[in-house]
Design brief:
single chain; 482 residues; alpha+beta; OB fold (Dihydrolipoamide Acetyltransferase, E2P); BirA Bifunctional Protein, domain 2; 8-stranded mixed beta sheet; 14 helices; 32% helix; globular; binds adenosine-5'-triphosphate; binds manganese (II) ion
Length: 482
């Protein structure tokens, strides 16, 4: 007999038919009612065992976390809480679970404890919901780009270019750590390394994506990226997944439109397809909010927050306008910011970004035209803008409530001379990036793209608090368990 998935049974409700289900015991009440979950849905199937028909030894093995197989007839349920239930005829224990040793308990356990037990946390309601939603979002992203004719490009994970400066890199080497080969001047000789040069794990696929875009028109990457930044925050991982579309002939405004459309599309996709899982996470968030002081609680529930983003236009303003708002803001005047906002030209701290989004506009915000000095070399140089104290670039950062920066992007500098000048100013070796510069030498064109941190998106949609809880096995300073 073929196993049925609980999701299918609950959707189709094939009453009076014979079904076989397998899954993990969530609860066992009155020696009679098993709540069974097989991961196909957030909901459990009620499996009813007639204790007179099964021996006590078998019933005694039906413990929280045990894996069982049950065959029987699907009937309409007499009880409240479910429409159908399984009247069990054959019951088999596939895997015992000793409650005295099992780390998970049928009660609320802290996210920290569950993170230490990340190999088992998929089995909790919260984490199974998070990972089903993570899957749905990944699918929605591919669907969004595919439907718009983008080509999915796999950019390399091991890279020899360390010029981009997006973050500290992890070195990849096969050289001996104890006794590495040395050059005559005593430096490590990477010519003898596996690739004949020094290599790292990529921090971004953007530069390679640009090469693709200038032939294929519209491409996107969706792959792992690595940053050895020592930032122990709730928004940074050392290994995270990034989506990087890159489009020929797009300017900054097209780029913003694309990012906004994409975010709205994937959030709507989750609202439409993940209602059960979102309900679990909404309840979790509401409980968590209750532990906060009244004035720090969110006014919106999780689904309200998602609808709010999907139904509202994002506010677009320049960095220079944002600095004015921040400088004149109450927290700045009252000295409440940890980093006071003084002059034009410094990078915004996350407290400033969150003030703009959560307090001032109460909407997602796109900041544009940042000072050139705080942005990457490849961003397109703006013509001098009136009332703006220094040179700016056509950059855009999208800021979300509770998250801060979720997207960072720009129109790229397509003009060879301008690009080379900027690289010289920033001491970026031209020889190493000859392949990048070639696109500007041969058939260059305006183009633009951005990077969306996938985990930051999952964090937003699930309403989880820590980015370490939306990736299966998080890597962060001091931790590479599992
Ligand atoms: P931040 O200022 O938050 O560190 P960044 O300016 O370093 O971000 P970019 O280099 O523009 O970010 O990367 C593009 C996107 O990748 C960001 O908008 C963010 O969503 C995501 N991102 C960047 N660093 C991390 C990280 N360490 N962990 C998870 N996501 C990240
Ligand atoms: Mn960073």
């Amino acid at each position: 007999m073929q196993r049925s998935k609980i999701a299918d049974i609950l959707r189709e409700e094939p009453v009076n038919s014979e079904v076989l289900v397998k899954g993990w015991v969530k609860a066992f009440r009155n020696n009679q009612f098993i709540a069974l979950n097989d991961g196909s849905t957030a909901s459990n199937l009620q499996v009813v065992v007639d204790f007179e028909r099964f021996d006590a030894a078998t019933l005694d093995r039906i413990k929280f976390g045990a894996c069982i197989s049950a065959t029987g007839t699907l009937v309409e349920s007499q009880g409240k809480g479910q429409k159908v239930e399984l009247k069990t005829e054959v019951l088999e224990i596939l895997g015992d679970c000793n409650p005295d040793e099992y780390p998970l308990q049928p009660k609320k356990q802290s996210p920290e404890f569950l993170r230490e037990n990340a190999h088992l946390r998929f089995r909790t309601n919260t984490f199974s919901a998070v990972f089903r939603i993570r899957h749905a979002l990944a699918y929605a992203i591919h669907k969004f780009f595919n439907d718009r004719g983008f080509c999915y490009l796999h950019t390399p994970i091991i890279t020899a270019s360390d010029a981009e400066g997006a973050g500290e890199m992890f070195r990849v080497t096969t050289l001996s750590m104890e006794n590495p080969p040395r050059t005559e001047s005593g430096e490590i000789n990477f010519k003898e390394d596996f690739f004949g040069k020094s290599t790292n794990l990529t921090v971004s696929g953007q530069l390679e994506a640009e090469l693709g875009a200038l032939a294929l028109g519209a491409v996107y990457t969706f792959g792992p990226t690595f940053r050895a930044e020592n930032s122990n925050t709730t928004r940074h991982l050392a290994e995270f997944w990034m989506i990087e579309p890159e489009v020929a002939f797009n300017d900054l405004r097209d780029n913003m439109d694309l990012a906004e459309d994409m975010l709205r599309y994937v959030i709507n996709y989750a609202l439409e397809h993940c209602a059960d899982d979102l309900k679990i996470l909404e309840d979790r968030l509401t409980e968590e909010e209750k532990t906060k002081p009244q004035d720090q609680r969110s006014e919106l529930s999780l689904t309200e927050k998602l609808k709010f983003v999907s139904e509202n236009e994002f506010i677009r303003l320049t960095y220079t306008e944002a600095i004015d708002i921040l400088r004149n803001s109450n927290p700045n005047k009252k000295g409440k910011f940890q980093f006071p906002v003084e002059g034009w030209g410094t990078d915004l701290q996350s407290e400033h970004e969150r003030y703009l989004v959560e307090k001032h506009f109460k909407k997602p915000v796109i900041l544009t035209n940042y000072p050139a000095a705080i942005k990457a070399f490849y961003m397109r140089q703006d013509e001098p803008l009136e009332g703006v104290p220094g040179p700016t670039v056509s950059a855009m950062d999208i800021l979300f409530p509770g998250i801060g920066e979720i997207v960072g992007g720009s129109q790229r500098e397509e003009r060879y001379d301008r690009l080379v000048n900027r690289m010289r100013e920033m001491h970026i070796p031209e020889e190493e990036l000859y392949w990048y510069l070639d696109t500007r030498r041969f058939g260059t064109c305006p183009h633009a793209g951005f990077g969306l941190g996938f985990e930051r998106l999952v964090l937003f949609v699930t309403g989880m608090t820590n980015i370490r809880d939306v990736i299966a096995f998080p890597r962060y300073p001091g931790s590479a368990e599992f």
